[in-house]
Amino acid sequence: MKITFLSLMCMVMFCSGPLHAYAVPLTFAYEGAVNGANGTTPSNAPLFQAMIGETLRIEFSFEMDPVLNPDQNSNLGSGAYALLSMTLSVAGLTWTTGGGNIFVGDADPSQVNLFDGYRVTSNVAIFSGPQLGGTQLVFVDFVLRDPTRTAFSNDFLPLIPPNPSAFGGDPTGQGRNEIQLAFADKMNATFGGLAVHDNSPFNLSSLPTNSPITTATPSTVPEPSTFLLLGTGLAGLIVWRVKNPNMCRKRG
Known about the structure:
Number of strands: 12
Number of helices: 3
Radius of gyration: 26 Å
Strand order of the largest sheet: 2-11-10-9-8-7-4
Helix content: 10-25%
Order of helices and strands: HEEHEEEEEEEEEEH
Low-confidence stretches: 8-19, 211-234
Distance between the termini: 20 Å
Mean pLDDT: 76
Strand content: 25-35%
Largest sheet: 7 strands, antiparallel
Shape: globular
């Protein structure tokens, strides 16, 4: 049977299957009014207190494809995923970092002390941005808590921003929906903090960003498995031609 180069390439591409790697990450954003602030020295405390009422915004990006961003936690009901970047801004000040995690908790209804939760945190201590009262941003924690345990049905990474109004916080006092920023100097001698406590469902809100339907398009770059299959097919073609040189000659 005569095998042409075109038919061989078709078989290789057919066996490689469709590509599912996404080239565009998702970005979620939330904001709320600062209603908690403190400083540990007479000089920096007024600077943090001046932030009360200012809008604090958190924006974070992550890879949505589970192949590129797999669950790092093997425990059922508790997912852990990697962040690509995080940006915080308030009163014209902006901080950024390139690390962190997203945690998704789907609590077992039989465990009365647990709740569904969505948490975005970064404590890599490598935030670029200005100092505030002689301190640098060192820790960020954004948490949504649902004591009714109905927010999630699994611990998969949400591809639509979780709505803060669907999370009632923890009425037993174990925690609230909130954004917390911690600041410290290099000697860990001076500290400061800003917080958005969601005392009502309306102090925290999600902001429109990119949509997985309109922006996350399949990558045109072949996956490693595609390269492997393509290389194997080309190698087979070369071997076949060496063994059958006469079939490559034109007939008179």
